């Protein structure tokens, strides 16, 4: 299996994160997967944004959950970009997507879109929330899922298997060779995030990771030649 490079919120190191502009750039750069984040708006739209509040990435203030899609559309998400919804990303790029459920309540809405648009082969669903992974797996038969963690205990492999995940997406600075070997022995692949430097890329390859999530398109080029 080749080493995967996953565009983090598109290519957020060079474009406004989680915007159509960022996703298109990631596709043009040849990223194997494009990662994005999902929250529900007040009126139930799948808003593509990382934080629960709009403050950091837009010119607005307040929780996403307290804003309608119309209100979110009025915000500038960087360089004149608007906050997209998941369906717009599906139409803007043809690349495989890695959709992260940030708000557990978004799982059911995401499942409806995936069933309606037959996205099992195109969209991998990931989350820090075990319950979100378990729910999407129940609602969308055959969906590929991954458990995300920044800090974890020794049971992280067991947690992933318990909810039917086939991949771990972990903080690259805390991954150990022992964990990678255990995950591989249990049939799980392991991706490290965020890999933005040559040192982190060499670490990822040295640990035998299956891929890296990165903010920068040049990591894809470098990854092909880093042993």
From TrEMBL:
<feature type="domain" description="GP-PDE">
    <location>
        <begin position="3"/>
        <end position="224"/>
    </location>
</feature>
<dbReference type="InterPro" id="IPR017946">
    <property type="entry name" value="PLC-like_Pdiesterase_TIM-brl"/>
</dbReference>
<protein>
    <submittedName>
        <fullName>Glycerophosphodiester phosphodiesterase family protein</fullName>
    </submittedName>
</protein>
<dbReference type="Pfam" id="PF03009">
    <property type="entry name" value="GDPD"/>
</dbReference>
<dbReference type="InterPro" id="IPR030395">
    <property type="entry name" value="GP_PDE_dom"/>
</dbReference>
């Amino acid at each position: 299996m080749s080493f995967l490079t996953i565009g983090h919120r598109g290519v957020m190191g060079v474009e406004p994160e989680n915007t159509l502009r960022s996703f298109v750039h990631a596709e043009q750069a040849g990223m194997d997967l494009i990662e994005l984040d999902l929250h529900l708006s007040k009126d139930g739209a799948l808003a593509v944004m990382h934080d629960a509040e709009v403050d950091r990435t837009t010119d607005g203030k307040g929780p996403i959950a307290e804003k309608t899609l119309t209100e979110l559309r009025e915000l500038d998400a960087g360089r004149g970009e608007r906050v997209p919804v998941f369906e717009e990303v599906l139409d803007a790029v043809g690349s495989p997507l890695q959709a992260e459920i940030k708000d557990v309540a978004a799982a059911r809405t995401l499942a409806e879109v995936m069933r309606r648009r037959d996205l099992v082969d195109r969209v991998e669903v990931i989350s820090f929330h075990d319950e979100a992974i378990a729910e999407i797996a129940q609602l969308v038969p055959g969906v590929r899922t991954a458990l995300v963690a920044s800090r974890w205990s020794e049971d992280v492999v067991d947690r992933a298997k318990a909810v039917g995940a086939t991949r771990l997406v972990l903080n690259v600075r805390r991954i150990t060779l022992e964990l990678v070997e255990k995950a591989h022995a249990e049939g799980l692949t392991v991706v490290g995030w965020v890999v933005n430097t040559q040192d982190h890329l060499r670490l990822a390859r040295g640990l035998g990771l299956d891929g890296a999530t990165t903010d920068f398109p040049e990591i894809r080029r470098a990854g092909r030649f880093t042993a």
